[in-house]
Write a structure and sequence with these properties.
Blueprint lengths: L7 H18 L25 H16 L8 H24 L3 E3 L5 E3 L10 H42 L12 H9 L18 H23 L6 H19 L12 H24 L5 H11 L1 H14 L4 E2 L4 E2 H14 L1 H25 L7
Antiparallel strand pairs: 1-2, 3-4
């Protein structure tokens, strides 16, 4: 590998996660989703539950390249860059929560959004906060100190959940310690209600262990850059990834693997799997030269990941502006009910609908790549 060459495997890894995010977020019908494309109901981990932590891991990988530039900047300049990026990503996420600024009711009347019920947190907001905390740790404590603090965060989160959660049920949806914090700080009306109760899967307390996905992604990226020509580099990565998975599985016997409250065992489990997958990609792409059409599909997503992800959310929400038929059916459900379901059936049609949007957004990314348009935040 050329020392100055960008790691193509990183773009492919990041692009794969973005493509999977679109795939799992846009089924034709949430009633007809194949099990691997749905989240675990509570404890456990499906392939879909790997997507978000893998993206955070990729954020850390990218930071291992980008933060090299911080060495030439003053402390004030570094902090300015970190906080500017954090706020920008956070408020883009908040904008997505507001968009399309209202909804149609059953009678077809458009009602503007009620800000008193606006959800404050979300996927991009978690990315922003995790990036901010991880970047500050790395900047001030350097890799070794950051690794130690991250391990303490994972252990401390377990202790807080165990000792301050509901007696006898500290890891339940409404009994975990983070629930009380979210209710007190965010307020019930500003939390996610998709589970039938006020519950924030991107809650404030559970953001702390999620920082671990970014930090370990950074450490893996930094290690690969430093040892890219060293013998045994990939073997050590495989051993590290396997070790993280083994520790996670042992830990899960007392602190279950759970995405919705982002348990510490879930962090280690997903970090281990991400490390193994990235190791395979580095071997095939960087070392064996597996480049071309097979990798380019994911490269397209990886070159404009945030923009394409935001566009996917806005596209789906924009459908709600269009009402069709006497029942004022939204365009999203109309497309599935009148095009994809009749042609492919229930489950295959729902999957085909999602794949259609993956391909549609890929075309946007492909056009941007052709025009050398890269949106950086």
């Amino acid at each position: 590998m050329n020392q100055n060459q960008r790691f193509l495997s990183l773009d492919v890894f990041r692009g794969l996660t973005v493509a999977c995010m679109i795939l799992v977020n846009t089924p034709g019908s949430w009633q007809y989703v194949y099990a691997p494309l749905g989240h675990a109901k509570w404890d456990g981990c499906t392939p879909t539950d790997l997507v978000f932590p893998f993206f955070l891991f990729a954020v850390g990988n990218a930071m291992s390249f980008a933060m090299k530039k911080f060495n030439t900047l003053s402390n004030a300049q570094v902090l300015g860059k970190i906080f500017k990026r954090t706020l920008l990503i956070f408020f883009i996420g908040l904008f997505l929560n507001m968009y399309p600024f209202g909804r149609y009711d059953a009678e077809g009347h458009f009602n503007f959004i009620d800000l008193s019920n606006l959800r404050i947190l979300g996927v991009l907001q978690r990315i922003a906060l995790c990036y901010c905390i991880a970047a500050l740790l790395i900047h001030y404590l350097k890799p070794r100190g950051t690794a130690i603090v991250t391990c303490l965060l994972l252990l401390g989160y377990w202790a807080v959940m165990y000792f301050f959660g509901a007696p006898g049920d500290p890891y339940s949806m409404t009994g975990h310690a983070g629930q009380a914090i979210d209710l007190a700080i965010l307020g019930e009306s500003h939390m996610y209600h998709g589970e039938g109760v006020a519950f924030e899967p991107e809650g404030l307390l559970s953001t702390l262990p999620a920082v671990g996905n970014v930090v370990f992604g950074y450490l893996v990226g930094a290690y690969v850059q430093k040892n890219r020509h060293a013998r045994g580099m990939l073997l050590k990565l495989v051993i590290a990834g396997s070790f993280a998975i083994a520790v996670a599985l042992l830990w899960s016997s007392v602190f279950p693997i759970n995405k919705k409250i982002w348990t510490s065992s879930y962090v280690l489990y997903t970090v281990g799997l991400a490390t193994l997958l990235l190791s395979v990609m580095i071997y095939l792409i960087e070392m064996k030269g597996w480049q071309g059409k097979g990798t380019y599909f994911f490269e397209v997503f990886g070159k404009n990941p945030l923009f394409i992800y935001v566009l996917s959310g806005m596209l789906v929400d924009t459908y709600s502006y269009f009402r069709l038929g006497p029942n004022h059916e939204g365009l999203y459900s109309w497309m599935y009910n009148h095009i994809f379901q009749p042609v492919f059936g229930d489950y295959p049609g729902s999957l085909a609908f999602a794949l259609f949007h993956v391909l549609l957004l890929w075309l946007v990314g492909w056009w941007m790549d052709r025009k050398k348009i890269y949106v950086r935040v």
